[in-house]
Amino acid sequence: MIKTTGLEFKRFYDDSEVWVDGAYHDDLELYINGTQWMGDTDLEVIDNTDKIRIGSGVILYDDGTYADFCKVFRGWLKKQTTVILTVEVPKEKAQILESGIKGMGGRIV
Fold first, then answer.
1. Range of the domain at 33
2. Which of 20, 49, 64, 77 has a C-alpha 20 to 30 A away from that of 9?
3. Domain-embedded: residue 38
């Protein structure tokens, strides 16, 4: 099972290198904040901070080929040059953390 954030999952779905014309997913086992996605809900309802777990699925292409959803997602993650972190800090330390992140060239999304 793959754990990710809503923001990272949406970025994956927006990547035209993964989702070439005619590509679509099937049999996707997906949990959003612990609730299984039943396939009848639009994935656009996912919030950036949602906790996503991907269990299985396939990506199908127009040419009749297919790929394991989790393998494609893991490969996509490896190609990324940035990471998305969800952190928890005491409220009074949040400003210090934000300054440190921005000082390293990061941004708060």
1. 2-103
2. 64
3. yes
